[in-house]
Specification:
By secondary structure, this protein is an alpha+beta fold. The chain contains 4 helices and 5 strands; from the N terminus they run βααβββαβα. The longest helix has 15 residues.
Length: about 150
């Protein structure tokens, strides 16, 4: 069965919620966010003003998502996108879903005049690193900190 990549729509909210919780809690082992906060984030992304989500749809079942946020780069003096998330459900890894989601983000960035698309992944996520290198990504020179 083929996977169709498209922008997320309101009818996807319930399935997106499930996938996002898998990504946050199961994959990254982060604490479960408050329901209200996750619903608010989904709502913000569905409005497509501060970011956008793409989904991998397989006959009405969402198999993955990618999230682009819109921001600025001071060093480029231009608008950029940040691909904050690219997640594919375990049963669909190794299919064309991840490539399709990545290419949708890249195409959106280019077609909308953004200067570049940036992303990051966990240092121990070797599978993702190999994937991003295969997609043409280059490892940056910056370290990521958080507080």
């Amino acid at each position: 069965m083929s996977v169709h990549i498209r922008t997320a729509k309101q009818e996807d909210a319930a399935q997106l919620r499930i996938l996002m919780l898998e990504y946050i809690v199961d994959f990254y082992k982060s604490p479960k966010p408050e329901d209200r906060k996750l619903d608010e984030l989904i709502s913000v992304l569905l409005k497509r003003e501060r970011g956008i989500q793409f989904v991998a749809d397989q006959e009405g079942v969402l198999k993955g998502f990618a999230t682009l946020y819109f921001t600025y780069s001071t060093t480029r003096a231009a608008e950029i996108t940040v691909m904050n998330d690219l997640y594919v459900a375990e049963d669909s890894r190794g299919t064309t879903a991840a490539q399709g989601l990545f290419y949708a983000c890249k195409a959106y960035t280019e077609q909308n005049g953004y200067a570049s698309m940036l992303w990051e992944t966990a240092e121990d996520n070797r599978r993702a690193q190999r994937f991003y290198e295969k997609m043409g990504g280059k490892r940056g020179n910056f370290l990521t900190y958080s507080i």
